[in-house]
Design brief:
This protein has 118 residues and is an all-beta fold. It contains no helices and eleven strands. Strands 2, 4, 5, 6, 9, 10 and 11 form a seven-stranded mixed beta sheet that branches. A four-stranded antiparallel beta sheet has the order 1-3-8-7, with no helix packed on it.
């Protein structure tokens, strides 16, 4: 059974930092691309960052480049999203996601709330 479980969301002041985690199970983690998305109230879900399985190359939305870093620990089946210099507009529910090739299906975690406010 494929599972993605996010954690690490919190209330943080502008300029602060958070690290989100996504623990995966039920598929060959090391070979799969993992994405972080976010969805703010009243807005569409937005792709924030991507990390490729083999090789570990990364890609970011323009809105978070230079502030967010995605990384993975294949030994722990976990992907991280380090978020620095947070802004109020980063407030959203953050989801990790993976398209599991053998199942031909995209899977989502339950999400973790990040609120940036003073």
């Amino acid at each position: 059974q494929v599972q993605l479980v996010e954690s690490g969301g919190d209330l943080v002041q502008p300029g602060g930092s958070l690290r989100l985690s996504c623990a995966a199970s039920g598929f060959t983690f090391s070979t799969h691309t993992i994405d972080w998305y976010r969805q703010a109230p009243g807005k569409e879900r937005e792709l924030v960052a991507t990390i490729i399985g083999t090789g570990g190359s990364t890609n970011y939305a323009d809105s978070v480049k230079g502030r967010f870093t995605i990384s993975r620990d294949n030994a722990k089946n976990t992907v991280y999203l380090q978020m620095n210099s947070l802004k109020p507009e980063d407030t959203a529910v953050y989801y990790c996601s993976a398209y599991v090739m053998i199942r031909r299906q995209r899977y989502w975690g339950q999400g973790t709330q990040v609120t940036v406010s003073s």
